[in-house]
Amino acid sequence: MARPLRIEYPGALYHITSRGDRREAIYINDDDRQAFLDVLTAVCARFNWVCHAYCLMDNHYHLLIETPDANLCKGMRQLNGVYTQRFIACTGVLAMCFRGAIRRFWWKKVRTFWSWRGMWC
Length: 121
Fold this sequence. Notes:
four-stranded antiparallel beta sheet
């Protein structure tokens, strides 16, 4: 069965999550977490994203991203791809960091988004 079409449009708000392959850790230490945040910052600048919130867990992450341009898929490919390359270069582990496609949910109502945003870690 084919995956549903990804809905992208300018000004969309997304809750994005991606987890480690085989539910393994995607960050070994705080340096890895900082490296991920550095890549996220670069991706936000390159793709004109606004990151409203993030939560980095041991084996996955959550992001609240606003995309003024309809470019979520391109940016996520950049985010996960560049971080994986850095992770492999630093650890020598030849494996994919992330499992499958990203999970994303878009917000229809900005009011709901802002009330939910306060409950992040």
